[in-house]
Amino acid sequence: TRSPLAALGDCRLDIGCGDEAVRYSTKGVTATVLSLLLLSVRLAEHGRREIPAELARPGIAAAVASMGGVIQHAERYYEEHRKELEAATRISVLGFGPNVGTAVEAETKIIETVRVPVQGMELEAYMHGPLFELRPEYTLFLTEVPGTTSAERLRQFADFASGHCDHVHIVTSGTSTGRERELALD
User: Fold this and answer.
1) H or E element that contains 24
2) Pairing between strand 182-184 and 139-144?
């Protein structure tokens, strides 16, 4: 609200996250996405448009409430794989279908914090070029959306890549399949 740009607008949206305490803009990005999602829901309600249950207010509230558990899963996974993850020298984060944006955002956050070469890409694009530079010591993170047609394709690629790379991780919003190096956020 104190920004010179805000003074020029007809209206402002204060996302209410305050200043970032660290150099990385994680809090601001998360607050912005949530604020814009809530604004979209409000506009849809105002226009009497049908909203899928997971994107309506109760669905968003449930997603926000689950964040503590997501953080616990991630921290536990990190501790289990700490040595391997801290030794990473090159990382690729791959998304397919609805998770391409997740892969690209992960690239930004990993570069900001871990400071190793990272690329966030769409799975098919990776298979048509960067795949050919894959080495056993590289680290891959594959982001999965269970129940989509892309999930099966991603799992097939994980099996293939595991024959060429020693560090293939799957991050899924679903339940665990028991696969080694699978972060199941449930």
Assistant:
1) none
2) unpaired
Judged by DSSP in three states, 143 sits in strand
Can you tell me whether residue 104 is helix, strand or coil? helix
How would you class 115 by CB atoms within 10 Å of its CB: exposed for 0-12, middle for 13-18, buried for 19 or more? exposed
Is the pTM here over 0.85, yes or no? no
Q: What is the pLDDT of residues 38-58, one digit of tens each?
A: 888 889 988 988 888 888 888
Residue 122 in 3-state DSSP? strand
Lowest average pLDDT, out of 26-30, 112-116, 148-152, 160-164, goes to 26-30
Give the sheet arrangement for strand 167-172, strand by strand.
118-122, 91-95, 139-144, 167-172, 182-184
pLDDT tens for residues 43-101?
Answer: 998 898 888 888 888 888 888 899 899 999 999 999 999 999 999 999 999 998 878 99
* Cα R_g (the chain), whole angstroms: 19
Total residues found in the chain within this entry = 186
Q: Are 148 and 97 in contact (CB under 8 A)?
A: yes
Q: Smallest Cα–Cα separation from 96: which of 126, 53, 76? A: 126
Reduced to 3 states (helix: H, G, I; strand: E, B; else coil), residue 102 is: helix
For the record, the structure tokens of 19 come out as 């200043």
